[in-house]
Structure formats: C-alpha cells, structure tokens
Amino acid sequence: MGVTVLWENETHHWRGSVDETSGRMVVDGDEVAAATGWTLQARGLCRGEVCIPLAGRALTDDEGRLDLGALCDVLDRPWLVDPTRAVAAVGVPRATRRAALTDRRAPDLELTDLEGRSRRLEEFAGRRRLLVAFASW
User: Is the pTM above the cut of 0.85?
Assistant: First the structure.
C-alpha cells in the first residue's frame, strides 16, 4: 500500500500504510532517506554530519518501517495524518517557525490580485502592505 506525504513543499508517494484506528503512519525508511536525507543509524537519526540521539525512542515498527509521527517528533516538526486517505502533512521545524515570529518577516507569498494577476509579496518591499485572508465557510 502507498501513502502520500507533503514534506518541505513537495509531495512524496512512499511505500507505507496507516492504521485507521490509531492514525499511525509507517513508511519505508529508504524512501524517507532519499527524499529528506535523514537516515536511521546506530548513533541516532542522522543527516550528513548531524545526528540526533534517540535516547531509547523507537522510530520503527516490527517490520523496520519508520513511524512518521515519531520521526516528526524527533525532528521537532508538526505533523498531521488523514488516515482515511493515507495522506500526511509535515510542517517546518519549530525553530524555523519561531524565527519567523521574532524577525517579523512574512514569507514571500505569491497570490492572485483582484484583477487576476499573479503577484509576489516582495514586489511591494519597502511599502506598507495589508493582506486580508478569509474563508467562505
């Protein structure tokens, strides 16, 4: 069975499955490593020279597949799983989100204006801007 994971603004289709009762998603570790660079090693969860010690945390199931939620917890990333659709979304690390709040800089968004033209926020650098967002429901 396959799952869909939204990670770092990219959509990945990995071998894996979701337990619909618990919402736990397990994925193929090799596919995660190829997409994210994070690998499970004896010294911890590693990417390049950086390793995060696991201190007894189990990231795999009995078949050696990675538990996506446990992986995200170790990487300090928020995550959400829709078990009925086998889809997960993984957010940016907490440190990145915190930095965005402290430097008070908006990300460079690209949105459509009232005339239907695609506009980037950076086009208005140095000028005051007001962004209004709403939901129709």
Answer: no
- pLDDT tops 80 at residue 108: no
Integer Cα distance of 83 and 50 in angstroms: 32
CB-CB contact of 90 with 74 (8 Å): no
Please say whether the beta carbons of 38 and 46 come within 8 A.
Answer: yes
Q: How many CB atoms lie within 10 A of CB 107?
A: 7
Confidence label for 115 from pLDDT (cuts 50, 70 and 90): very high
Asked if 39 and 46 touch (Cβ cutoff 8 Å), the reply is yes
Per-domain residue ranges of the chain: 2-95
Helix (H) or strand (E) holding 100: helix 94-103
| 29-51 pLDDT tens trace | 899 999 999 988 888 899 998 99
pLDDT computed for residue 54 by the predictor:
86
Which long-range contacts link 128-131 to residues 24+ away (Cβ below 8 Å)?
A: 131/106
For 62, the 3-state DSSP assignment is coil
Residue 122 contacts residue 108 (beta carbons within 8 Å): yes
